[in-house]
Amino acid sequence: MNDQWLKQSNDVKGKNELKIWLNGSLLSHEEATLPVNSAAVFYASNVFEGLRAYWNEDDGELYCFRLAEHFARFRESMKMMRFEIPYSDDDLYEAVRAVLSGNEVQEDVHMHLVGYVAGIGLEATEPSGLYIIPRRRPRSDDPKGLSCNISSWTRTSDNAIPIRLKSGSNYQNGRLAALQSRADGYDQPIFLNQEGHVAEGTGATFFMVRKGRLVTPPLTADILESITRSTLIDSICPEVFGMGVEEREIARTELYVADEAFFCGSGYEITPITSIDHFPSGRRRGRPDHEAAVARLLGCRARRRRAVPGVAHAGVRRRQGLDAHPSRLCVSNARLDVRVGGINQRAQRFNVEVGPRPNLYVAHALAGSLQQAPGIR
Ligand SMILES: Cc1ncc(COP(=O)(O)O)c(C=O)c1O
Fold it and tell me: How many Cα neighbours within 13 Å face the side chain of 74?
């Protein structure tokens, strides 16, 4: 056993480990096991979602990012994999609540919500099960950004191993590319698809700024239908920051002359890319001002607290008036339209509906990471 493996293993087993929710029980990492002959273990026949919950110190509450959309995508992945888990969306919401409240979480965490096939063999579709692994994960505040390369590995195509389907098995493509990047001295790869156009990162959506426009590859470019991507396209960029996003194919060489580039995702939040194949990103080449540029681009104001669409109440510390039906809270929040510095009419109606005080706060790390970026404090 090498030292790093031993350290990771001890960290996980340490007294600080957060318990895993497995089919209704909260278990230690050692107790939470699956049969080695299951399709889940052998073929990685699973589907999963990466969820974020943010602790709001002022409010003493946890808020999850767009649970309803994550659950919807989870079900789409299961549909493509031709299996189901016997849990409704309300059950899923309760499971998330159980893992957070059971672990008495009072900090930012990331969770993997995993539906799996416990049966044996490649074609097994049942029985199925569900687990949630929480881990401590603060908001991204790495000011360094990522040096990226264009991977020599191709993003798997929709007709072979569709990336729209969020299964653990599909991530081997990302693993190969990420390890190759590390071996070659980069932080992360950017995939091209089989047509040779830009696709995405291993676990994040790619955005760039060129000639004053914010551009991202289309949903047909062999990318995951990212929830952060649609949050930027549908809400934050047009409604909060007054700029649209162009969804179009991106050629490799555009990356070398892009003004700015960043990854986004529930896990990555907004992570600046500082160079691609050693071509520095950012107008002022060679200067580490990319975070400020991204912040400027998104019109961020220093320390301004804002509510962000889709931040749903996790309800870990229940309060009078906020204790509405969980799925309603979650789904309703996902439809809310929230503006900087205030809450619009629909949001107000929502407040009247579920409780005396706003159920929306600055929690999403898009805002968090931008607030933390140098140059905009
Ligand atoms: C391959 C891939 N692309 C993009 C994303 C970003 O998606 P989201 O914003 O829904 O987290 C992820 C994260 O799950 C991912 O794994």
Answer: 25
Pocket of ligand 1 contains residue 77 by CB under 6 Å = no
Q: How far apart are CA 40 and CA 115, in angstroms?
A: 9
144 tagged catalytic:
no
What secondary structure does DSSP assign to 347-360, as a single string? HHHHHHHH-SS---
Nearest residue (by CA) to ligand 1, atom 6, is: 265
Per-residue pLDDT of the chain (377 residues; tens, 9 = 90+): 455 555 555 555 555 799 999 999 999 999 999 999 999 999 999 999 999 888 888 878 888 888 999 999 999 999 999 999 999 999 999 999 999 999 999 999 999 999 999 999 999 999 999 999 999 998 766 667 899 999 999 999 999 999 999 999 999 999 999 999 999 999 999 999 999 999 999 999 999 988 878 899 999 999 999 999 998 898 877 876 677 899 999 999 999 999 889 899 999 888 889 899 999 986 444 434 444 444 444 443 322 333 333 333 333 332 222 222 222 222 222 222 222 222 232 222 222 222 222 222 222 323 333 333 222 21
Question: Which domains can be identified in the chain, with CATH numbers?
Answer: 3-136 (3.30.470.10)
Q: Ligand 1, from 155, 207, 224: best to mutate by most atoms within 8 Å of Cβ?
A: 224
Nearest alpha-carbon partner for 27 in 108, 150, 133: 133
Expressed in angstroms and rounded, the spacing between residue 166 Cα and the centre of ligand 1 is 9
Ligand 1 binding pocket includes 200 (Cβ within 6 Å): yes
Instruction: Kindly give the distance from the C-alpha atom of residue 1 to the centroid of ligand 1, in angstroms, as a whole number.
Output: 32
Phi and psi (nearest 5°) for 29?
-60, -35
Ligand 1 atom nearest 224 alpha carbon? 3
